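Recall that a protein's primary structure is simply its ordered list of amino acids. Everything else, from secondary elements to tertiary packing, is in principle encoded there. The following example makes that idea concrete.
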Amino acid sequence: MHLNMAIGVSDGRGDLRPSVFNILDNPMIDLNHLRIFERVAAHGSFSAAARQLGLPRSNVSRAVSKLEESLKTRLMQRTTREATLTSSGKALFERASRIMEEVSEAVGYIHALTGVPSGPLRVSAGIALGINVLGDALPGFLELYPEIRLELHLESARVDLLSENIDVALRFGRLPDSSLIAQYLGTLEQTICASPTYLLRHGRPERPGDLARHRFVDMPTPDGRPRAVVLSRPEGAETVLVQPGAIVDEVLTMHRLVRGGVGIGILSSYLLKADLDDGALERVLPDWEVPGVPVSLVYPSRRELAPSVRAFADFMHGLGADAPWKK
């Protein structure tokens, strides 16, 4: 998104017309000048900044000089080929970059409010959820909002939303990062299951404690220790430490290994319906339940939700019976 601020319009005397955006206490600080300085500093060159902004190089140089006059400090050391930031220039550039980004986002957000949701929407989700849920749901979303340009990023590990410029992510489980804003969607039911081949070879667990002697196909635990599985029924709950025979950080591969007889697994029920129906997998300890996994929409906290993100959130909340999670 580019900020359109009528930068560098001549006033007839070869100077830049004053901007209405004066953001500092000093009324002589012009946001146009600050924007031009930020582009020069980013490129390290007056000429490169002038080309990007579509301005004569002399106008760019004059804008930076006026900013220096207003601040009463040298911001750049100039040569014929490059512009090198002084210590004051480095400090201003770091802050000016953030200011320009936030102003750009704010202007873009206000503009978007006047029309239909549009533009790029970067969504992050797990591979299994992307293939099994979003792949079916998103055609309907894009039919409703054809002006949105969707970028769907499927990963087996969580990504940093800010550094990857992600607008919204679907996350499972606890959300330890308090800098993110989360909206609860629902809970995925979990099922303990194994293949008939595994159960024939190793026996069928009859009670929760039996799980301790079986091989599990499991996700990595944060501390690398065996997982404590809580099983419950109306009469009470039991906790069992299970031993992994294979550790996998991607759910679809985990599912394949369980189906292939490597061990017992605890998987989201929405992945298992076909396998349970055709006998490729069987429920283990069907009278006991394991806790579900919460699913949330997660946003970078520094951003106001754009209309495209709000539209996506509303759509995901409205999936109803088509969603694998339950409220």
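The two ends are 36 Å apart (CA to CA). Residues 1-24 have pLDDT under 50 and may be disordered.
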